[in-house]
Amino acid sequence: MNEHYFVKDTLDSLKKRLDNNESLLIQQDKGYVFNAKFSFNTPATQENIEEFCNQTGWTLPNDYQIFLKDNNGAKLFCDPFGSCVHLYSLEECIQNH
Known about the structure:
Blueprint: H1 6-17, E1 23-27, E2 33-40, H2 46-56, H3 62-70, E3 74-78, E4 85-87, H4 90-96
């Protein structure tokens, strides 16, 4: 049985669409167009993930662990006003819990 990593697959596809400045032209309603910015953190190690799980007592889904090993957090679709979709790093999970 093949395991699907929806977060990884989605982000990998998205990254292929980004330009050299890690941005993507987005069109919203009423014709508003802007360059959405994206940033991806450096990867977490398996040891970082294990330490996090031991410290918090949480069990992380495999899909999220794969995301953390590729990008330990990310900010997606950031608009000119500073609004972003924020995928937390391990450290941000602890800080914001």
